[in-house]
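User:
Note these tokens:
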Amino acid sequence: MSEASGTLSIPLELVELELALNNEDCLGLGFEGALNHALGQVDGQILFRMRLDGVDDCDWVAAVSVSSDGGQALALVVQRSDGEKLAVESIEASELPVAGIVSAYAGLMASLDQPQEETDIELEDSDLTDAAEAELAMPA
């Protein structure tokens, strides 16, 4: 993990993800293939991925969510420009600007995945008539 020693508590699931990534053939599978395979081993998913083409010394970065005891652990998986290995960075410790939007994006995706509640409003005929009359009475 790319953490300063002892500054943050790293969820075990993210350590497991990094171990799974270390066993992947990134050259053969490509960034997304290796990442998907590793995430399948740790019950995780890609939130989004971006090609950075050397910006901040990265070729690829992906925001990921991994199921953990306390809900979900969020992290970035980074392929640096100078290496073949993929590294896991916690969003709290990452210096990449994209780390700042991962929590909000995960929250948005979670809210979109939830079924929308339907609101049943029962109106009587007299309510509809009253509403229509009130609207007609309003000056244009």
Observations:
- Residues 2-6 have pLDDT under 50 and may be disordered.
